[in-house]
């Protein structure tokens, strides 16, 4: 789903800024009703890589769209060989947000706990952390190009030098012709 699609879907579920994480557009990874709460969970960057990611949670009453303030929202994450949390999300006036350390590649199972005036509830979601893209090392490319260029110039000079100095003009007194000297 595109970022615009996520924004439209989450706006319909909870409010106009539901699919935001750290004040930037995010990919919605879960939404629905959890007990007395309606929620939408977004992640940024859209294609998470190992490191810190931002999670944004929009929270409203199940029958409404007004953001709930003053709730305690925590997130815990588990993957093979990794774990974080529970981490407490901060409310920014419209949604709750936090930075989560997803340091390992693979599928992370997230548990979101809501505790507020309407009671307690829990929701689950999953996010997949991709390996970082392979980037060419510019120093290796520059070094290889420089070395290749110097090598080509050196071979060119060697070929030119040998072709110019291979034949020495020596005039024979008897024949008046040039002869090859080795």
Chart the SSEs and their pairings:
Elements: H1 3-13, E1 20-21, E2 24-25, E3 27-34, E4 37-44, E5 51-61, E6 72-79, E7 82-88, E8 90-91, E9 96-102, E10 106-116, E11 119-129, H2 138-165
Antiparallel strand pairs: 1-2, 3-4, 4-5, 5-9, 6-7, 6-10, 8-9, 10-11
Overview of this protein structure:
The protein has 182 residues and is of the alpha+beta class. The chain folds into 2 domains: 3-129, Immunoglobulin-like; 136-182, no CATH class. It is 21% helix and 42% strand. It is rod-shaped, with a radius of gyration of 33 Å. The relative contact order is 0.14. The model is unreliable at 1-22 (pLDDT under 50).
Short key terms for the protein model shown above:
5-stranded antiparallel sheet, 4-stranded antiparallel sheet, 2 helices, 182 residues, alpha+beta, 2 domains
């Amino acid at each position: 789903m595109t970022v615009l699609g996520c924004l439209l879907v989450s706006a319909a579920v909870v409010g106009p800024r539901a699919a935001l994480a750290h004040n930037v557009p995010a990919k919605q990874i879960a939404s629905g009703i959890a007990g007395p709460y309606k929620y939408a969970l977004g992640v940024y960057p859209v294609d998470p890589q190992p490191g810190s990611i931002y999670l944004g949670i929009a929270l409203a009453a199940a029958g409404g769209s007004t953001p709930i303030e003053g709730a305690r929202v925590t997130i815990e994450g588990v993957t093979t060989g990794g774990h974080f949390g529970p981490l407490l999300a901060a409310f920014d006036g419209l949604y709750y947000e936090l930075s989560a350390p997803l340091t390992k590649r693979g599928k992370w199972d997230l548990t979101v706990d809501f505790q507020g005036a309407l009671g307690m509830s829990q929701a689950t979601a999953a996010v997949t952390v991709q390996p970082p893209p392979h980037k060419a090392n510019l120093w290796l490319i520059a070094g290889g190009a420089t070395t290749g260029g110097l090598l080509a110039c050196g071979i060119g000079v060697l070929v030119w030098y040998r072709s110019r100095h291979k034949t020495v003009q020596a005039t024979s007194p008897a024949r008046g012709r040039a002869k090859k000297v080795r």
